[in-house]
Automatic annotation (TrEMBL):
Keywords annotated in UniProt: Amino-acid transport, Cell membrane, Membrane, Transmembrane, Transmembrane helix, Transport
Subcellular location: Cell inner membrane; Cell membrane
Highest rank taxon of the organism: Bacteria
One GO term (biological process): amino acid transport
TM ranges: 12-41, 48-73, 79-100, 186-205
Domain ABC transmembrane type-1 as annotated: residue spans: 17-203
Gene Ontology molecular function: transmembrane transporter activity
Protein's UniProt name: Amino acid ABC transporter permease
Transmembrane recorded as keyword: yes
Organism whose genome encodes this protein: Litchfieldella anticariensis (strain DSM 16096 / CECT 5854 / CIP 108499 / LMG 22089 / FP35) (Halomonas anticariensis)
Amino acid sequence: MDFADISAFFPILLKGAVITVQITIGSLLLSTVLGLILALMKLSPVKAFAVTAGTIVNVIRGLPIIVQLFYIYFVIPELGIQLSAFQAGVIGLGIAYSAYQAENFRAGIEAIDAGQIEAAKSIGMKSRLIMRRVVLPQAFRITLPPYGNTSVMILKDSSLASTITVAEMTRAGQLIAASTFQNTTVYTMLALMYLALSLPLIFGVNRLERYFGKGVKGAGK
């Protein structure tokens, strides 16, 4: 590995890293919103909602992410909806991971002690208020570890957006390697940059887990 090559390649990869972060944030927000909606639908007493949400989750989980990206980028425009490669990447990853987020949220909500819900009902709280003030805050603490893992997975799988020409970090690395044949240098740098993006996220989630864990212990004393 030559320092001159590293100096030349780094700015290009850094621009790709910025797009990688943008894709990750956009996909994470979209998957969170869709996942919460699907989780609440699956837990709904209305059977049609539960069945619909369950079917959507199973279909999404049964399809490879790359196929979903291809479908959104190549097929949707044929229906008259024009999307940029970046938009297709965010939407595709967001939808793909919404199914996993839905299962995370569902498990967190179902883990809440039913006695707390009954107690809230006994003092006249409405269902929406119970969900907002009693269930969701506690479910958030429970789902934080799998949510953090999902966030890291989205960051890593953002590299799949390179298959639909999004100029994110992996795509930038591929183009550099193809033109310079410096495969060892380029892909080593790429691996280290993904690690540099992932580790702060992992450490941040771990700190939040410890923080909320202390809060739960303190509340129980």
